[in-house]
């Protein structure tokens, strides 16, 4: 008798396993994307104090906030697709600023 359990799986089980693997990969990718844009936003804020920021810097910061909001939305949607409905853990674990949470899903690419 073969000890390889993969030989005894039905095709639906194999497919389910592959789907779960892809969901996990997508969750990781979305989480890393959110971490990256939140880091860029934190670096920007450290380099450019807001009260004295010029209009062009405020516009760059707004673009970062919008990008972070979009990345957050992508992660939350992916988590919900996996059955993880409570996004409070994401907000806490990734230390998502309120401003980014308020712009979740609102991302407009600059035209031109």
Task: Describe the structure in brief.
This protein has 112 residues and is mainly alpha-helical.
Fill in the keyword field for this structure:
single chain; 112 residues; mainly alpha; 4 helices; 67% helix
Description:
Helices cover 67% and strands 0% of the residues. It is mostly helical and 112 residues long. The longest helix has 37 residues, at 11-47. It is elongated.
List the helices and strands and how they pair.
Elements: H1 11-47, H2 55-81, H3 88-93, H4 98-102
Helix pairs in contact: 1-2
Proportion of strand residues: under 5%
The topology string of helices and strands comes to HHHH
Global structural class? mainly alpha
Mean pLDDT: 86
Distance between the termini: 65 Å
Low-confidence stretches: none
Report the C-alpha radius of gyration, rounded. 20 Å
Domain count, please report it: 1
Number of strands: 0
- Largest β sheet strand count, sense and barrel closure: none
Helix content: 55-70%
Quaternary form: single chain
Q: Count up the helices.
A: 4
| Mass-distribution shape | elongated
């Amino acid at each position: 008798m073969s000890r390889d359990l993969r030989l005894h799986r039905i095709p639906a089980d194999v497919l389910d396993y592959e789907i779960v693997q892809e969901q996990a990969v997508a969750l990781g990718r979305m989480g890393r994307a959110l971490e990256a844009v939140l880091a860029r936003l934190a670096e920007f804020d450290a380099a450019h104090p807001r009260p004295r920021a010029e209009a062009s810097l405020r516009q760059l910061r707004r673009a970062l906030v919008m990008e972070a909001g979009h990345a957050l939305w992508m992660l939350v949607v992916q988590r919900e697709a996996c059955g993880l409905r409570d996004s409070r853990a994401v907000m806490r674990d990734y230390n998502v600023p309120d401003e980014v949470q308020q712009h979740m899903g609102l991302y407009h690419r600059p035209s031109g």
